[in-house]
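Task card 7
Instruction: Convert sequence to structure tokens.
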Amino acid sequence: MFRINEVLKYEENLFRVLLLLPEQLVWIDVADPKAFPVVMLTRELRSALEEGLLIRVEAIVDDQVERLFRIAIDKHLLKDKGISVPYAHRRFAELYNNYFPEVPESKIPTKWQMLHFYKREYSQVEKLIKRTNAIEYTKDVRPLKGTANSNVLGPGSRFEIDATIADIYLGSDSDRGNIVGRPVIYMVIDVFSRMVAGFYVGFESPSYAAAMQGLVSMSQRYEVFQLKNISRSSSVITAMPKSIHVRSMQSS
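Output:
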């Protein structure tokens, strides 16, 4: 007789059914954000429903209503047009009135019932794919398969350099109270071995001119970054890389 997510009115309070048990159900006060779920006897609520003390506020969602939910969601909501749930529910209400013209507006399944069905029946991946533009999905959303090592033959095959602003504020040597600013750290990494081949720390904004300082550090002081306990026969970079990839930076 009762269904999950159904809203019932008892006296002046609204309660939503959260869980159905063999002889009990769990509901919660909708209007009270601090309310805790309460266990109620089904037979007592059934008697209150027959006596008119308990009133159904929302319509029961049966198989026919779920079918209409699915039609409206597939046609309007699962599109890359940015359609909202309220808009899709209005289209559902029009469809519902075509099938059940004698049903009053107060008995039409609500937006929240439709949203509950939408979250329950459609996975997050499916919603993301269908509600995202194909170009945007391919460029920014789709999962990337493979690794950075897919086209790297070994150590020294490719270096990558990138910059980030350090999460720290440096002070002046002459006056500790004088905040100089946040430094920019450039790191040159060997893709295959993840070895730090060079770095540069400065206050310049990310640019190619500043990135070149990291490349100079890589070429002139390379021996500083080699691990002393690794022999020359091990997989250690001993020459300039075949290619260097640089993230897009502003030229100054």
